[in-house]
Amino acid sequence: MHRRISNNFTYVSSCVKYMIFMLNFLFWLLGGLLIGVGFYAFVDKWQATGWLKVDNFYDVILNISLVMIIAGGVVFVVSFAGCLGRCVRAPAS
Length: 93
Prior knowledge:
Keywords: Membrane, Transmembrane, Transmembrane helix. It is a multi-pass membrane protein. By secondary structure, this protein is mainly alpha-helical. It has one domain. α1 packs antiparallel against α3. The radius of gyration is 21 Å and the shape is rod-shaped. It starts with 13 loop residues before the first helix and ends in a 6-residue tail after the last helix. The mean pLDDT is 82.
């Protein structure tokens, strides 16, 4: 006798799916927070000194506000892609 599997069958528990979504959402918020704090520090330093030296690669790496903006942007994009990957459902074949 042949068993029929419904279209909604999945090997992954729905609890695990929502846990993954919540963790990606949490990291998405953390990435946005890093971007915001880094941007605030960048503007504050720029207003305090009146100039900002970004001539070469080492000036960017040694400026912690720019590192926070870049790292926050990477975390933001990757975690947003994870949220989309969890929410978007593959078409049934």
